[in-house]
Specification:
It is an enzyme of class 3 (hydrolase). The protein has about 210 residues and is an alpha/beta fold. About 10% of the residues lie in helices and about 30% in strands. The chain has one domain: Glucose Oxidase, domain 1.
């Protein structure tokens, strides 16, 4: 049995959300006490709640929507690298890490320290990281922050550069205590018609396949 490492943020009332975005809410609309048979909940949440993938449509009107994402991009070999301690990560910083030919690179920036609040001053990606990653065969980049661009950015240069190089984005993963190294990633978007992003349950499978 392979070890399963959950790298997802718990979705819960009061969890941090993008400034001004929909707060997460869960409530029971039917209870066993009232209905005599079942509890049934309802959710209100942003498509960017917690750990999520951005579809290109999030920042490009002609970009692919969530239901158009190929699932194979979100399942398969992934390398976790520890790149903590940088205000921004460009080609120069990433060059110091062995990416090992993995199509999926998950970056621990360590820049979201207090998970009870939405972070300020996160480590972002520089646009020149995109070409460097693409040359090494990367197709999915995951970060432990809510964005690959600075939170104040309107132009979203790293999002656009990554898309131009056909690299998709997984945001808000939790890599505290995860050893750098090679894993299998599973982080599937929901089958959400027309959406700009989707929460995912992201897990790493460690150990051997036997
Ligand atoms: N582009 C950011 C998210 C973002 O910009 C955002 C997410 C939720 C609600 C509002 C957002 N931006 C608003 O200006 C990202 O996905 O990395």
């Amino acid at each position: 049995m392979r070890e399963i490492i959950d790298i997802s943020q718990p979705l819960r009332e009061g969890m941090p959300v993008w400034p001004g975005d929909t707060e997460f809410a869960f409530s029971l609309v039917w209870t066993i006490a009232q209905s005599g048979s079942v509890n049934v909940g309802r959710l209100e949440l942003s498509t960017h709640a917690g750990t999520h993938v951005d579809a290109p449509f999030h920042f490009d009107d002609s970009g692919a929507k969530v239901h158009e994402l190929e699932l194979e991009r979100y399942i398969g070999p992934a390398r976790v690298i520890d790149a903590a301690g940088h205000p921004a990560l460009g080609a120069a910083e990433l060059r110091r890490h062995d990416l090992g030919g993995a199509e999926r690179i998950l970056i621990r920036t360590g820049s979201w320290t207090d998970r009870s609040r939405f972070p300020r001053g996160i480590t972002c990606l520089r646009p020149d990281a995109a070409g460097y990653l693409a040359e090494r065969g990367v197709r999915l980049i995951g970060v432990d922050t809510p964005s690959v661009d600075p939170v104040e950015s309107r132009e979203l240069p790293a999002h656009h550069a990554l898309l131009r190089h056909d690299i998709h984005i997984l945001e808000g993963i939790v890599l505290d205590g995860v050893e750098p190294g090679d894993y299998e990633l599973v982080a599937l978007p929901l089958a959400l018609r027309s959406a700009d992003a989707s929460p995912v349950r992201a897990v790493l499978l460690g150990g051997s396949k036997d």
